[in-house]
Amino acid sequence: MGRGRGATDCGKYQRGLSQSLCLWYGGQCGLWRTPDGSDLRWYAPLRQEGRRSDHYQDLVKILISIDYEGGSGVVHWKEPSEFQRRMMTEDVIAIASGLKEHTLIITDAHAGGRNILPDLLPEHCELIRGGPRPLGMMEGVELVDGVILASYHGGIGLQSSVMDHTFSSRTIQELLLNGKIVNEGLINTYLAGYFKKPVIMVSGDDSFIRSIQEQLDPGCEFVVTKYGISRFSARIRPPGVVRKELKECAQKAVVKIDRIKPILPPPPYQIKIRLADTLIADLIELIPGVSRTSGVEIEFNDPDFLRIYKSLRLCLNLGIAANYYREYGD
């Protein structure tokens, strides 16, 4: 379906446009016309009322935040690099194949963000890669209508979740938000909620899916990629079968996007972190507003979740900086 710009007032169709979409996106008016010109529908009233028709879903933009550990076929960080990259890329292509009518932003959310093979992606996909980024794994979330968390994994300490960790096992041994243990999937869901974007689909190993399923909207779609046996072992589902499900669930999820609610706990917010060692705590303690409550425990508070998220990212980066002191001293 083609797209063009034109109508900027309700009820005014500029007939000089091609038979496609006459839309001022983000404004108040829009028309959709089939290629043969036989069907014309207004979408502006639906947008104003916070609803979409069955066809309005054609206009949505989706963020796919794709990690590595919960993906098809992989069980270890030491898998061959090209195998890792290929598996991640093929998983995200499977999701994209179910969303061909939509614009996609794919955020490479694993390690340094240079894993997805850009030249293999479909033309309706944009790719965010590299770093640093202000929003990390969720870079681009403010630009979209909904979010897919792909290939995610359990938080550190979750039994039988493959490669369990919470952002960085070298830095974080336990992460609590308002007294509740949280993982990457929940934190990123809450950041999406801060921007009023729903998480519409999640994929990962079975232990992770069980741990997060009841905490998300009932309309969210889930795909199990493998069945965890231990931290570095799993019963792998055939990647071809998984990718078929990824495609189908993406198609189901986007149809329901307006019925899936963004999720964000009410403020204020308190983060508590049990760190891997005292050196990391020594560095994080230097951040204004951070309190050190023991040799390896810190906490901070803020009524704004975006500031909480960015402070957490700073803590993670200081955990990486600690490696410099371990190797070189001052």
UniProtKB/TrEMBL annotation:
InterPro entries: DppA_N, Peptidase_M55, Peptidase_M55_sf. CDD domains: DAP_dppA_1. This is Peptidase M55.
